[in-house]
Amino acid sequence: MNKFSTMRRQRGLQHGFTLVELMIAMLLGLIVIGGVVSVFLANQQTYRTNAALGDVQDSARVAFELMARDIRDAGLTGCNSTPDTARIANVLTSAPGGGGTAVWWADWNNSVHGYEGAVTTGDPALTGLPSGVKYAANTDSIQLIGVEHSGVTMNVDTETAGSFTINETSTNLAKGDVVVVCDPDHSTVVQLTGVSGTTLTHGLAGNPGNCSQGLGFPTVCSSSGNAYTFKRNALIARITPADWFVGTGADNVSSLYRVSLENKAGVPTPTAYEMVRNVSNLQIQYHQGGSTFVDASGVTNWPGVDAVRVTLTLLSSDQRAGTNTKPLQRTLTSTTNLRNRVH
Questions:
Q1: Distance of CA 185 to the CA centre of its chain
Q2: Residues 302, 319 contacting (CB under 8 angstroms)
Q3: Hey, is 296 helix, strand or coil?
Q4: Contact partners, residue 176, CB within 8 Å, separation at least 6
Q5: Which of 64, 154, 197, 274 is least enclosed, having the fewest CB within 10 Å?
Q6: Range list of β-strands (E), the chain
Q7: pTM for the full model?
Q8: How far apart are CA 133 and CA 122, in angstroms?
């Protein structure tokens, strides 16, 4: 047998994959790859969902905490001498009975007031919103008025001159600020018309200005008014009105907004700020005395409200985080007591 015959015989013994075998191998490979891709996509979706859930929970935590601060402090003067509707003098010309046009942030007797659903357009704080900001229909809103935790203390009250001398060597109070002055006898809401060193003045001029220099209780709107000399170490603190509502901005994103009072060149000016994005709904209920929680329309005595229940609906910023490739949505509820109304 020659060499060429041996080589031909060896070639005849060699063979590769058949077409059927190759197709089966490819099919098995595709199944394995498909399984790997499926696990990857499932894990990716789980990660996105968990991240979105954390995002929603963080937003809810911030929203509830910020709102709770305003709710807890509503009606507090800083002296805790009386309930918020008792023995409160108010000499602002923009306060009810002050002789000028009443505005929501100057009405201490409405330190807590809610507006319900479709009728929230009756909320006076929602007039004159910044361009592009629109109230979200069928959501609630709430007005809250309190004072800052920081303040200054009285050294001398020169009532006839309409001035206070404070104990501190400096203050962040400024001309035009609206403050509450209080001691154990009563509290008075008044606008500062001048700040110079340790001297604060409260004359009749200003915007909105005061209807009287007399800060006694009850309010008497005349130049001298009802005179009262506040005791040494009486507290002076800036008021912090707030109105919470849900609206959409220029980018059409639904968010939780807060209207606060800013001193702009000596003029107290309500200003709306976006606080938490992707909040689509706000519903609020109120507890008064021994009753159950009711909507704003069911409240018969706003000064009797001692707790507020807030329900927020929030969406994830990831628009495909849900199992239906839509934003993840959660509705969460928090209840807050008013400090000076719970006994």
A1: 32
A2: no
A3: helix
A4: 191, 192, 193, 206, 207, 263, 265, 266, 267, 268
A5: 197
A6: 88-90, 112-115, 134-135, 141-147, 152-158, 163-166, 178-182, 187-191, 194-196, 199-201, 235-248, 254-264, 267-277, 279-288, 305-315, 329-337
A7: 0.85
A8: 16
pLDDT one-digit tens code per residue, 161-214: 899 999 999 999 999 999 999 998 999 999 999 999 999 999 998 899 999 999
- Ordered by start, the domain boundaries in the chain are 53-341
State how far the alpha carbon of 156 is from the alpha carbons of 80, 125, 191, 226, 236, in Å.
21, 36, 18, 18, 12
In 3-state terms, what secondary structure has residue 301? coil
> How far, rounded to the nearest angstrom, does the alpha carbon of residue 60 sit from its chain's CA centroid?
11
Rounded CA separation 77/215 (Å):
15
Tokens of 297: 């329309």
- Measured CA to CA, the distance from residue 314 to residue 279 in angstroms comes to 4
Q: For residues 224 and 93, give the distance between their C-alpha atoms in angstroms, rounded to a whole number.
A: 14
Distance separating alpha carbons of residues 86 and 94, to the nearest angstrom? 19
- Nearest CA among 77, 339, 335, 113 for reference residue 242: 113
Q: What is the DSSP letter of 300?
A: S
